Every structure is written in structure tokens, then in C-alpha cells.
Amino acid sequence: MDFFETKNENPLYLLSMEQLIYAGDKGGCGLASLKMLLVFLKKDRNYEYLEEKGAKSLEELKLLAEKEGVSLFWKKANNKKSIEENKTFPLLLLLEGKNENHLVYLKKKKGNGFVLYDPDIGETSVSLEELLEKWTGVYGEGKLQKKGKCSYKKEHYLTFKGLLSILSLFLLSSLSFFLSFYFFEGEKPVYLTILFLALAGLFLILEKEAIRLEMQRFDKVYLPSLFEKKGDLTEKYKRYLDFKKSLFFRLRTFVEAPICLIGTLVIFGINTPSFLLSALFMILESTLSLLVFKPLSLKEKMDLSSEEEHLLSLEREEKSDKAFKNYLSFEKKITTLSRKSEYHRFFDLAFALLLSFLPPLIEKRIETNFFLFEFFALVAVLETYSPFLEALEKEEERKKSEAYFRANFKRKP
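Given the sequence above, the corresponding C-alpha cells read:
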């Protein structure tokens, strides 16, 4: 039988649901690829949280798919080049690996190449030649047999009570802070400004304490499982801390930062409508900076990470002379990257300083206090918007971290 005889007859194919899912640990590529196929066929993103220990072989994955109402057919292509004529997507492809074969999710054909969802590295594009070089010829097709909702649900790592406490205290702190600015304007009593600033500080301290208590609860629930699986405890604990940090950082970034940004724009925009124009330019500059400069620095960081791994391998092989020379070069590159980050920060502040002249010129209020007031307001916009963009940029990295966490850390009963 020739490869890919069937055609996709689903008229809603182009509108179907697809999701990149990462493998939580070594050997988890098969289960992760199957999860992606189940999400696509069953139209339910909760299959990302499907758990099945030991489902690694093709036969085990087939049985697991049947259990979830999907028929998974494993086939061998007579002619691997016939994949170029394939009209059926998605597929699961078995690729050759260094130590063992590797399963990936073939999303679609794009131009003369293909788009893969690799559970280890994420979304990647490959040419036909690159795919044929790595592909074993084995592929899997899925067919929906039984509809139904997924019984697996996303695990909530933070408690409702903890979230409510943190967000309530944050809102009270923000409201007090913005009210202090409101009473700062005009001939209003100065003591009200001082009072609301003091309240803002108090609520901020209480919010930090609420976060600390929620972190303690998180550790009590998940940290005991650190010792349950064999492996490098130092590496596992580092990955644990990375996920915990990203969890609370994400809470503050995606919830608190937008509230601060909107509040700043409203408070300062009411008093000085021209401030909104300078804030818009500040937001555009931050966005362009992320799109243009951040990918370059991200590539440099990835190159440095690869170089660090190479240095560690040299140390393990006891090639000290070669390792020392490479280490000097590595340190120089780190310093250069750090300076670039400082220069970029300086440029942001300089741009905010320049934009601070805009409202005084438009309002025809050339006053030092008014200028400084606008400058600090723009810095507030920068400080709330930039972390939000950076968090969006690191979202895929966070998903990898969560996949590892789910595979290696379980909730204490």
C-alpha cells in the first residue's frame, strides 16, 4: 500500500484545535505527541494533563489512544518521499535519535518544508531533505471513534484563598497609591497624600507576606516528592525553584501589571490628556524593542548556554588547558551581553526623558515639577508594560518548565 492514501474529509480542518505540548522528562516524547493528537481530534485542551506512566512504546500509545476514544494506526511508508504529496494532517512521525527513536507531531506542510511540534524543543520548521534524513518511515494516523469530554483537568497550584488574599491586598495597595496622586494635585490637604502613601506601603507589605505564606504552602504540598524519583537532586531542585518562581512571577505579571498600567494611564490621563500620547509612544518603543532587539539577545543567551554545556563537558574530560581558554572567551561574551542589556535600559530611560517634554509643550506648562511628574509617570508605564512583554516572550519556556514539574512533582495527599 502506498503512503498516505486517505484524505482529510473534515470541512472544519483549518479551524481545528492544535496545541504544542512539551515532554516532561526523557522518554516522554511519545505521550506528549499523543496528547497533541488527542487535543486535535477530541477538541479538548485538557488532554494536555493526561497522565499515563509507562506509555512509551508504539503499542502502548495505541492502547492508550483507544482508551480515550481514538483509533491510532501505525504504518510504514513504502516510499518516504511520498510524504511530499500527503494531504492528511496531523501525523505522528518516528524519527531516528542518538540513543533511541523520537516521536514528533507533524502539524502541516509549509512551502517546500514541514512544521513539526517537537515535544523536546518546541515548534520547528524542516525541509523535505532534513525530514527524510531523520525519519524512520514509521508514522501514525489517528481517527476519532468516540466523542466525550476529557476526564483530566488542569491542576491548580495556588489556592483560591491565597490568590484572593494576594490580589485583594494588591488592589488595595494600588488604589491607595493612585489616590495619593489624586490628592497631590491642586489645593487638596497634604496629609491625605501622606496617609494614602502610608496605606499603599502597608498593603504592599501585607501582600508580600501573603505571597510568602502561599509559597510555604506550595512547598509543603509539592517539595516532599523531590526525593521520590531517582535523579540529580540539585538539578531537580533547581527546576523546582524555576517553576515556583515563574508561577508567582506570572501571577504578578499577567494580573497585577495590567492593572497598574491601566490605573497609571487613567490617573495621569485625567489630569493631563496629552500624557496619553507620550505613554502611547513609550508603549510602542517597548513593543518594537521586544520584537527587534530581544530576539537577538535571546539567540546570544542560547549560544552562551550551549557554550557553557561544552565547557562543563571539557571539565568532565579533564581538558583543563582548553577549558581555561574557552572560559575566558565565555566570560567576555557574558560581560558584553550584560553591557548590551544596560545600554538598552539606558536607552529606555533616555526615551522616557525625551517624551516627558511632550506634555509640558502641548499644555504650555514649562515647569520643572510638571516635567518631573510626567517623567516618573512614563517610568511607571515602562516598569509595568516591559515585564508583561517579557513574560509573553518567555511563555514557551514556562510551559516547558511546567511539563517537567508535572512529570516529576506530585501533590502530597
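The two ends are 52 Å apart (CA to CA). Try to locate this feature in the C-alpha cell string yourself.
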